[in-house]
């Protein structure tokens, strides 16, 4: 059967990991290449880089980081952040990214997703959606610019539209929960996962193994997601990917069992 | 000790083939990414990786004479490894972006996953992530692989109507589909060993051993 995925995410600014890296054994915790190798050794199912560099000259640095990372890992790498055009998508894929994530540019130019899907195929194309719960409780609203700019667009309808346009996957972030470690917004994740015919990656709020299990759970109260993205739970080295997976297996979530946790770090 | 076997990684003009080349090098092969039919013709083995769409890849292979070079290499007894699209291209034709002819080395066609599984439940397409492959059959590579392993998949199309005799790996996604096919000089997989960590390394090590034994 197809297994549920656990995806560590690194925020990268000007080629350095910036969020939440307190301590990592034997590696430069600020170097995305070294951190990615650590997660590869721990048998993370994929890894995601989110580029938060504001300045445009940071693009060359990002492409270099992607190329160096791809040279050293043997797992899928998704890269997002600041992807504005089909050329940006191509540049990242050519640098070694396996999947590219588009967010703000999709809101500003929805044709970009259909265009990119036609040119490069859906399988490598992720549409990222940041959203907040509406104050009146009537669903969730798509935001851009790190959650600061509301768009008035309903997130569930938007996810459906992006999947129709050719998004191969939806990366869904609850901006209400992002960074809080208080658990994923399960009603939100479930609403989107049940509405689209493509895989959904839950993001925002994952603080414990139980949170990840809830997002991935296919039961009536679960999030129904196919993958869970998490940052701080791994970066603070409270838990390894293997430890999280073992707990998920105990909780009945079908994930790839860790085989080489620990010794696998030796290449 | 003889030099590492040379492997032509066929470049049909799309995407980054570096990850395939570096994974082959890790398994002690000597890969060369090439779009040159002459290089394909003299390599000890040929790897056809999986990037882009079926129609674009088939057109590009034909335009550069790479289709004939790949066929000739297989006929000369050199081990072929197909990855993802490199499996699909072996079949007669594909539905992706209209009907397109493949190499026709295997019977069957490439079709998109259905929108629902056999029970009528919706099936998410693309099929993305780690899924198990059960191996069975009599191919030299299978002797070096576990009976079952997990590999990374990312695809929307898969073979339909393949001869069961060539199917050596099976995976469930909305029903069973061929995840690995093999003949005497062909081994091809729908998944990505170059992205499949240790399981992928085991498979590429098995390919390296097979290539070495055929030299």
Describe what you observe in this structure:
Chain A has 267 residues and is of the alpha/beta class. In chain A, 34% of the residues lie in helices and 22% in strands. Chain A has 10 helices and 11 strands. Chain A has helices at residues 32-41, 58-72, 86-95, 104-108, 111-120, 155-165, 186-193, 209-216, 232-235, 241-250; strands at residues 5-13, 16-17, 47-51, 77-80, 99-102, 125-133, 140-144, 149-154, 169-174, 200-203, 227-230. An 8-stranded parallel barrel of chain A has the order 1-3-4-5-6-9-10-11, surrounded by 7 helices. In chain A, strand 10 (200-203), helix 8 and strand 11 (227-230) form a beta-alpha-beta unit. The longest helix of chain A has 15 residues, at 58-72. Chain A is globular and about 45 Å long. Mean pLDDT of chain A is 91; it is low at 261-267. Chain B has a single domain, classed as Class I glutamine amidotransferase (GATase) domain (Rossmann fold, 3-Layer(aba) Sandwich), CATH 3.40.50. In chain B, strand 1 (6-10), helix 1 (18-26) and strand 2 (30-34) form a beta-alpha-beta unit. A 9-stranded mixed sheet of chain B has the order 2-1-3-4-13-12-11-8-9, sandwiched between helices. A 4-stranded mixed sheet of chain B has the order 6-5-7-10, with helices on one face. In chain B, 53% of the residues are buried. Chain B has 6 helices and 13 strands. The longest helix of chain B has 18 residues, at 197-214. Chain B is an alpha/beta fold. Classes of the chains: A alpha/beta (267), B alpha/beta (215). Chains A and B meet through helix 3 of A and helix 1, strand 8, strand 9 and helix 6 of B.
Question: Gist?
Answer:
The complex is a heterodimer of chains A (267) and B (215). Chain A is α/β, with parallel strands linked by helices and 267 residues long. Helices cover 34% and strands 22% of the residues of chain A.
Show the helix and strand layout.
The complex is a heterodimer of chains A (267) and B (215).
Chain A: E1 5-13, E2 16-17, H1 32-41, E3 47-51, H2 58-72, E4 77-80, H3 86-95, E5 99-102, H4 104-108, H5 111-120, E6 125-133, E7 140-144, E8 149-154, H6 155-165, E9 169-174, H7 186-193, E10 200-203, H8 209-216, E11 227-230, H9 232-235, H10 241-250
Helix pairs in contact in A: 1-2, 8-10
Chain B: E1 6-10, H1 18-26, E2 30-34, H2 37-42, E3 45-48, H3 54-63, H4 66-75, E4 80-83, H5 85-88, E5 93-94, E6 100-101, E7 109-112, E8 127-135, E9 148-155, E10 157-160, E11 167-172, E12 176-183, E13 186-189, H6 197-214
Parallel strand pairs in B: 1-2, 1-3, 3-4, 4-13, 5-7
Antiparallel strand pairs in B: 5-6, 7-10, 8-9, 8-11, 11-12, 12-13
